[in-house]
Amino acid sequence: MGKILVTGSLAYDHIMDFPGKFSEHILPDKIHILNVSFLVNKLKKQWGGTAGNIAYNLALLGESPTVLAAAGKDFSTYRKHLTKAGVDLSQVREYQSDFTSTFFVITDQDDNQLAGFYLGVMEKAQKLSIKNVRGKVSLSIISPNDPLSMVNYSKECRQLKIPFIFDPGQQIPRLSGRAIKDSLKGAKILIGNDYEMELIRRKTNWSNLDILKKVETVITTRGAEGSEILSKDFQLKVPAVKAKKIIDPTGAGDAYRAGIIKGILNNWNWQKAGQVASLAAVYAVEHYGTQEHHYSSKDFIKRYEDNFGRFETG
Description:
The protein is of the alpha/beta class and 314 residues long. The chain has 9 helices and 13 strands. Helix 1 (50-60) packs across helix 7, helix 4 packs across helix 5 and helix 8 crosses helix 9 (297-308).
């Protein structure tokens, strides 16, 4: 088996909690002159970025993913953290010209989020190429990153005949309809939450059936409502795992993606892959931060069986 290649952002997350509801402070008829300030009651700086989050969760699931990404002059402590977790960072390029990307997010009591993202050195990802990764790559995920890099990586995956997952996420607004269409060609999976999927349909003027002419499988995550896995042959709904306590939803989607990748690598059916993904996601929800959760294989399997029944190892 070859490498699991994770492309995307590496970032430091500044996560804040607002002890109220945004909707109570935003006037719909004044949205064109929006000027609001929220007094938060919690702030924590943590590891983040889509590539870092997905890779960390894959390591928890027993894999050793390789990250292809750009990092800044402040990356040293993050490097130690991911290396300790079991992530291969040999393809991460550190640039001293600027800082690692930084994500700022405020979450209200309804789990609505307001976010801002400082690119830092992320645009340097344009200089990185999958073609320079040594060894065989069995599967790649193209997660939110510098937009041009995402388009380039999908093209390289097609050229190199590498199965890939296209996960445009937060970068959909910065991708043109044409760029999304081009990037979807030949993808094994398109994945996103229900809001992101609607954006994709609007920007491409494609229906789900149109998208399925380009990709094998479309996965839509719906938070507490679970997820939907759609192909030309079937439509499968996977329930969410009930959280012991909802702390923060940030990073749950990336954990879910790691579970899907684990399922593909093990040739599990879609139902089991979706269930493992849902369980991986709930661990992130139960912790403050995207890479603060831990679990053993034994604990994971027990909780799987408590929710879904016997965990078949085959």
